[in-house]
């Protein structure tokens, strides 16, 4: 069993959590305002057309829909993190989102019908949803717009957050002249931040942390997301300089000041900036061997 990662330099993770909280508060405000507005207009319409319905029944109908949507919102935001729609992935993932919109509608209809049934029962009234098939079609025509609006806004917020924070990419071969570096063993990363490009030397990367569909490159107290997998990045880095310490971390040996042994063969890595990273039992001996200048155990296996 691997050690539980100790969050290093939580800057990017905290920024992601802030964006997630913003999304929940934003949609909570939007849905809540819509429910209040719909309740008021439905009350006005009922009075105008002499429809006998209590205001509390209208409110139950509107707020039950909002509550179910908000309960499902974190799962949709998590799906956006898990299956991001990029230029090279949207064709593969878009069918998943359409399937997700159907699941969203089913959950929405079932959830709000149950809440309405409960609310009407407590109010001493009878709730009749009518034809479930017709209700599903009616709600899906609305839910698919809501679903993909949430997806679009979520991706836009995440893109803007990465754009402000800075997003790294492997340095491409220049248009003119010889390549600055071999692409297979990059010496630099290109960081784009607020419309400007910066070169980050590979030697300045203190560690890399897997984070969903990205790998966060830690450079002088800042995290730059690189859209790749940790295994793919590790294969491009010099194995005598960068060593896997955990399933979620690759560290630069020169940045490791000490290795603190723990029970069950695990360890903690104390980094030069004071951060403590986990080292799992699986990679501990290989890291120690590489640090001592010996051939890594994985290479001899």
**What does the average pLDDT come to?**
84
* Structural domains: how many: 2
Structural class: alpha+beta
Helix content: 40-55%
Helix and strand pattern:
HHHHEEEEEEHEEEEEHH
Helical segment count? 7
How can the largest sheet be summarized? 5 strands, antiparallel
Distance between the termini: 21 Å
SS elements, strand count: 11
Can you list the strand order of the major beta sheet? Answer: 6-5-4-8-7
Radius of gyration: 26 Å
User: Uncertain runs with pLDDT below 50, 5 residues or more?
Assistant: 1-12, 172-183, 295-301
The outline comes out as elongated
Strand content: 15-25%
Write up what this structure looks like.
With 301 residues, the chain is an alpha+beta fold. The chain has two domains: 11-164, no CATH class; 168-300, Beta Barrel (OB fold (Dihydrolipoamide Acetyltransferase, E2P)), CATH 2.40.50.1020. 51% of the residues lie in helices and 19% in strands. Strands 6-5-4-8-7 form a five-stranded antiparallel β-sheet. A three-stranded antiparallel β-sheet has the order 1-2-3. Helix 3 (90-122) packs across helix 4. The longest helix is centred in the first third of the chain and has 38 residues, at 11-48.
């Amino acid at each position: 069993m691997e050690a539980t990662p100790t969050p290093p330099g939580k800057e990017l993770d905290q920024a992601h959590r802030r964006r997630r909280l913003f999304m929940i508060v934003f949609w909570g405000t939007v849905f809540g305002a819509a429910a209040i507005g719909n309740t008021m207009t439905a009350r006005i319409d009922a009075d105008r057309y002499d429809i006998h319905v209590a205001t509390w029944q209208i409110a139950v109908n509107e707020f039950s829909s909002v509550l179910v949507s908000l309960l499902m919102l974190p799962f949709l935001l998590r799906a956006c993190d898990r299956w991001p729609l990029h230029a090279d992935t949207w064709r593969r993932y878009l069918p998943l989102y359409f399937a997700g919109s159907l699941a969203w509608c089913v959950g929405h209809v079932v959830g709000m019908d149950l809440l309405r049934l409960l609310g009407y029962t407590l109010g001493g009234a009878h709730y009749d949803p009518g034809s479930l098939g017709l209700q599903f079609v009616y709600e899906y025509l609305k839910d698919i717009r809501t679903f993909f609006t949430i997806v679009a806004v979520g991706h836009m917020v995440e893109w803007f957050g990465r754009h402000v924070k800075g997003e790294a990419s492997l340095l491409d071969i220049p248009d003119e002249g010889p390549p600055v570096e071999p692409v297979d063993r990059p010496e630099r990363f290109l960081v784009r931040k607020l419309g400007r490009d910066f070169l980050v030397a590979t030697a300045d990367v203190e560690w890399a942390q897997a984070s969903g569909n990205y790998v966060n490159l830690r450079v002088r107290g800042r995290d730059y997301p690189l859209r790749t997998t940790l295994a793919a990045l590790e294969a491009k880095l010099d194995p005598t300089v960068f060593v896997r310490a955990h399933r979620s971390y690759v560290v630069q040996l020169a940045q490791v000041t000490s290795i603190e042994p723990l029970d069950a063969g695990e360890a903690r890595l104390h980094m030069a900036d004071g951060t403590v990273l986990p080292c799992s039992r699986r990679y501990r001996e290989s890291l120690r061997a590489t640090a001592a200048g010996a051939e890594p155990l994985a290479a001899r296996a």
